Amino acid sequence: MGPHHPSTHGVFRMDVKLDGETVVDLQPVFGYLHRNHEKLAENMSYLGSMPFTDRLDYFNSMTNNWAYALAAEKLVEIEVPERADYLRVIMAELTRLVNHVSLVGFFINDLGALGTPLLYAFREREKILDLFEQASGARMMCNYFRFGGLRNDVPEGWLDRARDVVDHFPVFLDEYEQLLCENEIILSRTQGVGCLSRDLAISAGITGPMLRASGVNYDIRKVDKYSIYDRFQFRVPYTDGNVGDCYDRFMVRMLEMRESIRILKQALDGIGDGPVLGNAPKVFKPKPAEVYGRVEAPKGELGFYLIADGTPKPYRYRVRPPSLINLTVLRDMCLGQKVADAVIILGSIDIVLGEVDR
Amino acid sequence: MSHTVNHESILGKFPGTNWDQEAGALIVPAVQAKEIATWLRDNDAFLLDYCSNVTGVDYLECEVKEKVTKEDGTVETVTRTEPSRMDVVYHLYSMQKQTGPLVFKQRTNREQPEVESLTPVWRSCELQEREVFDLFGVNFKSHPDQRRILMWDEFEGHPMRKDYTEPFDYEWEPTPHDEILEKHQRGKVIV
Amino acid sequence: MSLLGGGIFKGMAVTLRNFVGSYFYKDRLTTNDYSWRPTDKLPQHAGEYPKEEGEQLRDATTVTNYSRNFPMLLHDGSEPMDTIRCVACQICERECPPQCIYIEKSTEKKENAGGKPQFYPAKFDIDVSVCMSCQICVEVCPFDAIVMNSQFELSTPDRFGGLLLRRDDLLKSNDYYHNIHPEEAAARDKRIAEEKAAKEAKKKAAAEAARKKAEEKAKADAEASEGTPDIQEDAE
Q1: pLDDT of residue A261
Q2: How many structural domains is chain A composed of?
Q3: In CATH, what number does B8-185 get?
Q4: Which of A284-309 are b and which e, b meaning 16 or more Cβ less than 10 Å from the residue's Cβ?
Q5: Which residue range(s) make up the domain with A90?
Q6: Which chains are within 8 Å of C by 3+ CB pairs?
């Protein structure tokens, strides 16, 4: 199933061996979008590779920026002002809403509902992208985070507009659930398809909603408590692990969107005034050290491993891509299923090729 | 914040390992790597069942200047040659105990880099070790499926190595950018 | 016992509601209609279209006031080269991640608007096919000379030279900047004014201190010169 295929979420190829319609063997082939981002970053200053992190997981540029800023701030120990932290959480949770709603749209698109849920999702996504454009200047490749805070403060009235969007979102979600969650076609096509057991998920390093759908309560926002996440009350939806099928992953994402809205409301209420950029050194030249910083990206655990050697350029810059590692179990989940199920399983893993290939 | 793992007991049980204080990492010789990894995964004190990140780092031979304090109190700057090496770095977490990263490094030389594959221990190493093989050239013994993952199969060379030079085989097209690129290559633009 | 197919009917009800509602509530419409019309002529090479700044404003102000596209150089008055802010320090060229800026410094200095002789860029080219609109050149410029434009209709039929914006294409006035990004331009002007005022105040304070010191020194000298004749007589 070659790289040019409408359902493969990018240039992704699956060599599928079939017996009739049943999948006997499956080998994923990728690397079509490989830009060797890690080597580019070794020749660039620390700030210069921030716009390249936008382009890793191009749906969630804010979260990519945050993971990199977190890793670099650990290297140099910069204090981030409180308003910047609140805005970072707001941006990240808005990104999570964008990602989950688009993913559900694409997933249902793969099932065959050619476009209707997807366009409803995109209609809501446009509102959030407008918010991003007003804050940072660009809809998708925001390049908004800096080491020690954010690039600039949000314009006047942005918080009220954000509150409007967040208030309207649950109404939209109710309608979306009414459209999708009891639909017999979706139920019969996704339940029992692509089961992932708990032990295999932990051993294969799966993270994110896929792991929580297989029954493990592990969310980096609760474990690491980075930034100010310990101030917010939110639940982490996870299943009991008996079946970790596509339906579970789909429902976990719908529930996570509701929790994100909860965090957003708390953050929008609690945000205060103040500067948005801490005291970052003029030339970013950290002492020799190595650090691994990770965040809970909407797709899983996004980590940056930086080795600094005292020069303005990193010695080793490594991105831990959640989409690549979640693909480890693609073959295991698809064996014995039909070809059409393979497409759905790929859709539920939630990959984006910019991250898989870097 | 993540809760760090206590490494003292590992050093006691497996005498071949070292602790690198600067990097905060456990250096493990390749022959013992699988044994230590299995023990770390199954032992009740650690339960490191989640291997989060596998990566390779390439170190060329370089000279390091160090300040050494002698016995009579004088401080001298000594230059020593740090030999070249290639590291494969693993970041291990425990999902059950929710404890923080233990950094685990397998060290090997640059000429014939060979380490033990930890795919039988943690399944998440499968694709990431393939990437380290592809981009750095490290051979993983007993890896179930070692072949190139990001570059195409007939590619020669290992791009992430520090001494990798790009082959001059680009299709040239006159763009305005060439002027800028030439200037950069002539060394006038310093990044 | 639920109706077989009940879920599908519920979903259809939602679709119908959205379909009918989109005629009455703009909220339910999934597509947007841009309210601008492109002009009818096609550009022959970059910089030809559009010529007057008034024309440029037409497609720039109908997008939001915050969006950014490609950089532009600022000048303060009516004659671009007399009041250009850029001094060709080449910091933006160094920091640009995809290295799309090409600057050649002028060989002699010229007087700028403030009367001070300074360098200016003889050549300032941005390769727009490479530029990724990351805004880092704006951030690192110490003279507020380069900011982001929001003009996006830059397509040309010339594949090779048409996408290289030269210095004269990039020069835009500060008034144009206020028109397209009012808040950002106002904040920037405010900051420049504040810095200038702070510098003036510092200079004044330093001049005051120097003057005071000179006065005291003169006083001390005068006292010393009054006293010396007595000492000279004693010495003799």
Answers
A1: 93
A2: 1
A3: 3.30.460.80
A4: bebeebbbbbbbbbbbbbbbbbbbbe
A5: 13-350
A6: A, B
